[in-house]
Design goal:
single chain, 309 residues, mainly alpha, two-stranded antiparallel ribbon, 13 helices, 57% helix
């Protein structure tokens, strides 16, 4: 196989892959979860008997506590996954010739390192990941209105990415503990699942056992040792060093904020999809190269036509 043939195959397979995706799904799901949270009793009323088969406690308390807590974890999980969807596609789309080989197999460590090391202060690198041309933001063009639109959009990409990266870092452990093994506390502190007078805000409680030097930073969430007996008290240092000391972390989450994060990830994903489709569909005869940019409305993107050099 020649390199040209491999590139043609890569573009064809990328086009097919992108055309069969539905990036809006996580946004739809997040709004669905919010709708359920707003009407817990109404939504779960038809299946109360089904749930009761696995729970001998008062059904109404279970819905307000364990089920509600689980929904907030589910929403948190999808907000983090929406970020990983975006960064995974950015990471794998840099090599069109081997796109299929890389995009289907998900390498968790590679994606996480890519997110952690992503440098949004390097504007040229950042734009390259979105297939967007780089121009110095301190050198206005002759058409100032077009330049201002370009500059505003570039800064918006950075703003969104900074938010997404910070969100991923803050909630990654809770996301992993929920996704892998359900190592989270859904049954806690009585029947009332809310700590604040806001139906859209809830505390997610995650089990943890890591040594401080392996996990904690200055921005680490608060933690407690939930159940102490004399044998734990006198051996607490040894247990901690072994990574054998059970703790719980608690963080407040707002469903509206989770939706906002998910919509921003979706907006950037659509920008990336659009620019990749433009790239693989180019014939070489175009007079202008239409580049896609995000807007503050997650349902819309902006285009700027750049004259072909």
């Amino acid at each position: 196989m020649t390199e040209q043939e491999r590139l043609i195959v890569g573009k064809h397979q990328m086009a097919y892959y992108l055309s069969n995706q539905y990036p809006m799904w996580r946004v739809v799901l997040m709004h669905s979860i919010k709708r359920i949270i707003d009407d817990l009793e109404g939504f779960y009323s038809p299946i109360k008997e089904t749930i009761r088969q696995y729970d001998t406690e008062v059904m109404d308390d279970t819905i307000r506590c364990e089920v509600r807590n689980g929904l907030f974890f589910e929403a948190l999980s999808h907000s983090v996954q929406a970020i990983e969807d975006l960064f995974s596609l950015m990471h794998t789309a840099t090599d069109l010739s081997f796109f299929a080989k890389k995009v289907v197999t998900y390498y968790v460590t590679n994606v996480n390192n890519y997110i952690k090391d992503f440098d949004t202060t390097n504007t040229e690198y950042m734009l390259n990941q979105f297939q967007v041309p780089y121009f110095n933001l301190s050198e206005p063009w002759e058409h100032k209105d077009v330049f201002n639109g370009y500059k505003e959009s570039v800064l918006l990409i950075k703003e969104f990415l900074d938010e997404l990266i910070a969100h991923h870092k803050k909630y990654y452990i809770s996301y992993c503990q929920y996704k892998h093994g359900l190592s989270v506390s859904l049954r806690r502190y009585g029947a009332d699942g809310s700590f604040v007078d806001n139906p859209h805000v809830n505390a997610v409680v995650t089990f943890d056992n890591k040594r401080f030097d392996k996990r904690y930073t200055n921005n680490a969430p608060a933690f407690v040792i939930p159940s102490v007996i004399p044998e734990i008290g006198k051996n607490i240092g040894r247990l901690h060093k072994e990574g054998n000391l059970l703790r719980i972390e608690m963080q407040l989450v707002d469903i509206n904020k989770l939706i906002d994060i998910t919509e921003k990830a979706y907006n950037l994903t659509i920008v990336l999809h659009s620019n990749l489709n433009r790239l693989i569909g180019k014939t070489g005869d175009e007079q202008f190269d239409e580049i896609y940019f995000p807007t503050r409305d997650h349902k819309k993107v902006m285009t700027i036509g750049f004259p072909k050099e």
